[in-house]
């Protein structure tokens, strides 16, 4: 067991250093070709071998089997999963708890790090699974579903490891002078897990968004029940299978991690979340369910990443073309289905100053629209950027949204993707005073160019949206450094991480492990941050045992 | 402002080192005579000068004045306090927030440390205030109300300071290799306070139990509203007055800290706790109100220290007399009104093995009773140990409890304390199967010697009490080191800090700052720990601002 820790100790030490420095650092390459020549083919073959069959997961199917995943690109996956009943899940998790709790911090971290390493070697398999369930294009499915998710997992392990090892391990001598005598006690500090951790995953980033909680729970000693979205099971089924294999090989009970598969007509998340044996709940998904959890789950920590309204404010720019290209890519990537995708683009109605001279509001709007057109002109690139639409409801939302403002750019299917559910960005123009639509979340490739009084009004509306509706990202374009500095404070107060003047190969949608704190917990877009100290420190408790020091 | 930080930086560095080592460390002497010759007299005079007058606190009295404190030792204090209305409190706190949030971590810590230093110099004044409101004997009022509380305050500052300064201050360079290019961003991390912190204090340890929250809120940038128990206002009125003076001198708005005085017939805690502008709630007190807060306060962190059942298990001892003396002191100290006082003493019905040979259960019970009698035989010492009873309801509870078992030792007033509300320990004997009384909290000097099947049954009952009803302390006496090691794990799982074989000048009631984690948060006695990382890390959030690095 300590052998696994030794194998990965160097990586963990680097990760701990990275969370302290918060510059760029990544443990796992995001470049597919760096994984060698055989892994891509093996991953593809492994994925295809899973199709149309019962998924080989060694869990009880006392509640039968379930699974009706249909690829947003067309075909049904035809995979079924064991459906383990709630009582059975709790019973098995509880039975596994003592052995896992008693394992040393190093043993648990060693297991977690080995799981992450094996997940990383399975990145191509998982990429295909993510692609064919979430609708992400393959390149994103690989990066976000694979190495970036592994970085986020490692980051959570690093935080938890640092936090646990901050508590003295082994005996501590407590020697209090008392007059001419000294009172001597020996103290030992027991790290006590909370209990069963429930991790409720989302349908768009099943691994990236759930790994931090999953691994934070695991290494702090809590058995984990992973509840995937019923439309996106496979990536987490593979994850749980690999984790169970590592646990077993390391001599632990495989039930330290279990998959809770349910069907849309018989959901289990609520029942599990309020179950007395469940001590920790993590959730990524809609604000509606997030609110239900926050209101109904009592007496245990609940960590949520919900939704909100991400904004862009355009005051001025030194590179109008690059700005439009950058925004166009942010709107188009995964057809706007990222929790970080901008929705509202606030522009002063008098227009903006740029390197190309003054641009009217209409010119700004059409500039962005034209950049989207240019980006998506080539069907192959359009498919690689947009991917497919995960949920049919999103297509309906786009349809309905078309009447919510003046259409700057209509949405359309991606050319050449017949059979797939696709949609390019819909861009609408509205006046800031028309608050019927833009101040609400419109999930999907739907954005608004909002005409504002001036930049002060724009920033005011953007930060108010974050404060009141939540915001996971925000962007600002300005040549005025005083304005930027002032705005930085306002966005910080609104709990919205701010990206300023992004052009080139970096986008507001992107959140880098070990550097960006994803979700601040400071506005309604979520009450937790991936990952900070507060995210891990509540997952275990410390109990002191003290006795007189041996004479 | 940084001047205050510089003044106290060495102390803070020592405190940060202490929380990492968790051996014995104390910043403030618990020995009254080490404070010199003049401070005791000055403190007494300052206290007497406050009696019978309006307390000089520069807060709005838009809701009139309140204050009906009556000393448990007899006299009414005759002090009134400004009663600031809820709207006014919130308005003032909100108005003070921006300036305080913008202050640097060092500036805020400097102010907090200066407040603590001045509180320490006011230890004698505060000791009289604590004595004459809580009923603690003077020696305890001095130590627990003064230097020990200041240690706990400093500990919270150290945790918060370490946590905040763990986030890089100043610009961080993020440089991501992207093919042959490098993407360069500059990131800055803003620490953002949560909002107004409400600190609801208890009637027994008004300073020791509230200072950690009060100072954790303050240094993380949150304005604080301190809500004292209406029977025990003075110690916190003095605290808030001193804090407001330091804030003002340092150039901040005094309303960064305010006192919310209420009257029993018009309580304000609930209204304040659910107020949308209040972002953090800390509470020490009854489980009943703690439950109300946990169930009704949504969407904001709530930190509670509630109550529970503290236990002793006696298996065997190498020093029967010293054990009985130690337990007797723990039962008698402040007449059992500490949140750490043992209530249930589990003893095998077959008796125990000791250095004096076998002792029957009755001999153990009468040994403890005799030790209480011996401890309290001298009236002066009895008064110095027991103090007075804070709440008249406790006396009634003792009366009623007399019928709950076989009386081993009756409670009685402390001799020579006429006019004061006093009571020595009531000790009852019951069988473990008679679960009418001992498995419930009986606050005050009421304890049960519970006859158990054997030591396994005793430990099982003790740990179950902690798991189900909560437990802040637990004690075990045994000569069997294997049994102790096994028990340590069981108590840890029950979230109950365990003290083993205490004799001499250290008692299970005592919880040392910088070493003992007070309340684990792992059983119903409270959801928070004074003080650990989780206690401070939720009181602020981090928001990143990133922009292209200057070329």
From TrEMBL, chains A, B:
<dbReference type="InterPro" id="IPR016161">
    <property type="entry name" value="Ald_DH/histidinol_DH"/>
</dbReference>
<feature type="domain" description="Aldehyde dehydrogenase">
    <location>
        <begin position="85"/>
        <end position="488"/>
    </location>
</feature>
<dbReference type="GO" id="GO:0010133">
    <property type="term" value="P:L-proline catabolic process to L-glutamate"/>
</dbReference>
<dbReference type="InterPro" id="IPR011975">
    <property type="entry name" value="PaaN_2"/>
</dbReference>
<keyword id="KW-0560">Oxidoreductase</keyword>
<dbReference type="GO" id="GO:0003842">
    <property type="term" value="F:L-glutamate gamma-semialdehyde dehydrogenase activity"/>
</dbReference>
<dbReference type="InterPro" id="IPR050485">
    <property type="entry name" value="Proline_metab_enzyme"/>
</dbReference>
<dbReference type="InterPro" id="IPR016162">
    <property type="entry name" value="Ald_DH_N"/>
</dbReference>
<keyword id="KW-0520">NAD</keyword>
<dbReference type="InterPro" id="IPR016163">
    <property type="entry name" value="Ald_DH_C"/>
</dbReference>
<protein>
    <submittedName>
        <fullName>Phenylacetic acid degradation protein paaN</fullName>
    </submittedName>
</protein>
<dbReference type="Pfam" id="PF00171">
    <property type="entry name" value="Aldedh"/>
</dbReference>
<dbReference type="GO" id="GO:0009898">
    <property type="term" value="C:cytoplasmic side of plasma membrane"/>
</dbReference>
<dbReference type="InterPro" id="IPR015590">
    <property type="entry name" value="Aldehyde_DH_dom"/>
</dbReference>
